[in-house]
Design brief:
Layout lengths: L2 H28 L5 H9 L5 H33 L5 H29 L3 H16 L17 H6 L8 H24 L2
């Protein structure tokens, strides 16, 4: 086996089980409570839902980033000790793209969690999407799927992460942030 195969196996494991557990935990962290009366109590005591949700979202994304960094450092150290012919820049770029993919899927799961008031459903939806898009990876549509940010096997084979420009994924990140903002604005108007 080569060092590329070892890093790709890390991406596969991190994008399946670790992502599911991580998304469930951060969605659970961002929810206000299980009962409607408790949520109503919290939302009516603040001027804006941002006062409640922004620290929760920031903290959960920070925890996901730290967990991702620790996993990446562990994978990097393991690869470094086993192989001498590493291409450092390729590994760092791949880790950066993987981290961006984790944040995009985490924001998507958080939007679903705030709409559905459930932590398990968004984690399950994202996981099913990743599994289904793994089937479509070989097709023409496969290069446009956001799950390519999590499984970077094409990056090590061809040197290309996604479509040639990260503009599409930055635009997707902005759309997710806008959806989150609209949901919180809707909550603030509903509680007046």
């Amino acid at each position: 086996p080569s060092w590329q195969e070892l890093i790709i196996s890390y991406f596969k494991n991190a994008s399946q089980l670790s992502l599911f557990v991580g998304l469930y935990l951060i969605c659970q962290l961002c929810l206000l409570g299980k009962s409607d009366s408790l949520r109503l109590f919290y939302l009516t005591r603040t001027k804006s839902p941002w006062c409640l949700y922004l620290p929760k979202i920031t903290m959960s994304l920070s925890l996901l980033s730290v967990a991702s960094l620790l996993g990446q450092l562990t994978a990097f150290y393991t690869t470094w000790t086993l192989f001498n012919d590493l291409v450092w820049s390729d590994i760092l770029k791949a880790f950066l793209w993987h981290w961006l993919g984790l944040l995009i899927f985490a924001l998507f799961a958080l939007c679903l969690a705030l709409y559905s008031q459930s932590a398990f459903l968004p984690a399950l939806v994202v996981e099913v999407f990743i599994i289904l898009s793994g089937v479509l990876t070989g097709s023409q549509m496969g290069k446009w799927l956001p799950s390519n940010l999590l499984s970077l096997s094409t990056y090590f084979e061809k040197g290309v992460v996604l479509s040639e420009s990260p503009f599409l994924w930055i635009l997707g990140l902005m759309v997710l942030l806008s959806l989150l903002r609209l949901h919180l604005l809707r909550l603030s108007y509903d509680n007046r």
